[in-house]
Amino acid sequence: LNPASDLSRRLSLRTTSMTSTTNDARPITILWATQSGRAKACARRTIRLLHSSLGITPNNIQGQCSFDDFGADGFLSLGQQQNSLLLMFVSTTGDAEQCTSIASTWSKLLSKSLPHTTFQHCQFALFALGDRAYGPDAYCAAGRKVAARLNQLSAIPICTLGYGDDGSLNGGVFADLDVWLEGQLFPTLKAMIGGGQLKLLDASCSSALDDKEIKMYTVKAIRQADAAENENVALHEWQNERYQQHYANCFKHSCPTTAYQYNGDIKRRITSNANQLDCKTHPLLGRVSVNNRITADDWIQNTRHIRINVLSSMKGDAPTLSGASVTELPYQAGDVATILPSNPSSLVSRFLSVLPTAIRSIADGTIHIQYNQHHTQTSMNNHPWPQYCTLRGLLTHCADIQSLPEREDLFALSSFCNPNHEDGNDHREKLISLSETSGAALYGDYIIREKRNWVDVLYDFDSIRFEEGGAKLTLEDLLSLLPSLAPRHFSIASSPSFIQMNRSPTVSNGFALELCVAVVEGSTPFGRPYTGCCSKYLESISPCSDQTTSDGSDIVRLWIHPGSFSNLPLDIRENPSPHHYFTTPVLYVGAGTGIAPLRSLILEREAIMMQNGATSISSSATTVEGNGDGNDDNILVFGCRSKAKDYYYGEEWEEFVKTKRLRIIPAFSRDKKVGKLYVQRALREAGGGSGELIVQHILEHNGAVYIAGGSKMARAVKDEIVEALTNTLGSEKTAKKLLNKLKRTGKFSIEAWS
Question: For burial by CB atoms within 10 Å, which of 143, 262, 364, 410 has the most?
């Protein structure tokens, strides 16, 4: 039985007889949970179609943001509002997990203290996104969980759940979305409006002015460019005292909801009040002190080992935490660093060159940006821009001009094609066609496969900047269209305890962390070069020993927040030996840059051993094989393509093997002459084959298992573990039940990404 279809049937049996008990109209609340942006794109399309198909005007819609941006408390309060209607779009990430943009809300939603009537006044519809390739249990699991929990708390679904499959033909999730909208949601809403169950605000209630005449932003040029200042390329605009606080307030909106907070001495603050930690802060500031390539020079992949010395934070008032204390460790093993990149100056100049002259001419002067409160549509593309800045600075540090425009972006751009251009009308029709689901193949060829970003699209559709008769695109329009620069997440590859033990005496303040970053770069099918925004930004930074963050083009903005491995077992045996030191042994499985968080965990346990006076044993003191067999404490299964080319941190692992503190099981997929050896196969064949190592580690030694890397690899490894346990325990159900138990206690975790 497919759990997805089963849940749809159960929810569809729930009555939707809730009727209005008040004449007060309430807006529809639209929220999303997304990792890659697809759920947000589905929400944007739905909002446009609600207006065009049902006449539901923007003043009848609130939210239009992620769950956590809306706020967990605000979300829970919706359940107590009469006639409340929720429309949600929820993606699944990793090992059938919730996205980070719903993490805080989901945690509160799972609270056992919530009464079962929490959402008794709330109706909802939900579209879940996933990929059938990961199997029925994982397919759209996050969305199904949200729907099931709301159902438990007395919320009433107005229609069956929608399911969007990345692998669907002719449009992926968007093709499935259109089917759900036309077959389920829109007929239901139309009936509710006709029957008086859904009361809408009249469009005239929002403002006495025509909304089309109200721009989302008002922009004023208040200061001409100063040539002397523009020549100082080393000083980032966001560090300029004139603009710094405005940029700090802008950057603050990119802070992950679970990010740690630090005091003025860069000490991590802790408090027992979880609500006080659920607030956004200004970024930390650091300098790159090490930036080394760790793959062979002639290898296809450029992977970097990067060390960042965190020295201060952006100016701003730190939130007050009652009863808060500080901890010596600035972060925990397995945590994640969130980096806010900048766009290269060459790309910014190219972007300015494809804009109308009226916009381009004020690129280097100070502008004042004000958000218009009377505008009924909120901007779903961006956070608030800096109130005072230059356009060039905004494009460099705040706007994601390297991103691929979504379908709704192309639809919005179509209205700015100048009909006086010889191809203006044709451009408009092409952009509209690219935005529709029927044009999914065209969008895939033009945008996805050829990786055309905002610069490329504006260059190709030159009627948008055509001056004859006046260009239609204004700076206010541009700021409403552009997406904000999204921070990128990297698993920290260092152990805080290990780094503190080996701290350089020349470092007087702050702390250090290390990253393992694969630089994204390549060519499209038609030979167009492309690069990753953040990975290329980090690669470009030259190492610096400066211990200040007063100025410089190499200063990194970042936050740190918990990752998937927050319960690393560190309890020591009563009678420890160097290779049987901890109460709980750990099996680490990773491939590629998935080694980053695993290295952090391994080094943290090594640091604990060293702090407690553990001594290593020489390789000649035992007859154990050269890969560290006999060490049960730390077993690493690591996969890469070639030992000589991309064996990340191989020298470290070999050193640990010599001292019998690590057993390593490598899987070099391209070094094997017959067939490719991947981590799941290496894991299955270890310890005698048929998954004996898995069974021994989990069932006999009561060990923990941590998996990190790509989603498909993680799924394959988990399937191997389930199969091995099933063969021993007698049923797949029992095996999965055991893994779920280990997961709840922190002894089985997966950190996976697409």
Answer: 143
